[in-house]
Amino acid sequence: MVVGEEAGNFRGASIRREVPSLDVLADNLLSTVFMNLIGNSVKFGGSGVEIVVRAEERDGEVLVTVEDNGPGVPDDMKEKLFHRFERGGKARGGRGGDGLGLFICRTLIERYGGQIWIDDRVPGRPEEGGAAFRFTLKPANRDRDSGL
Question: What would the pLDDT profile of 120-131 be if each residue is shown by its tens digit?
Answer without folding.
Answer: 988 877 777 899
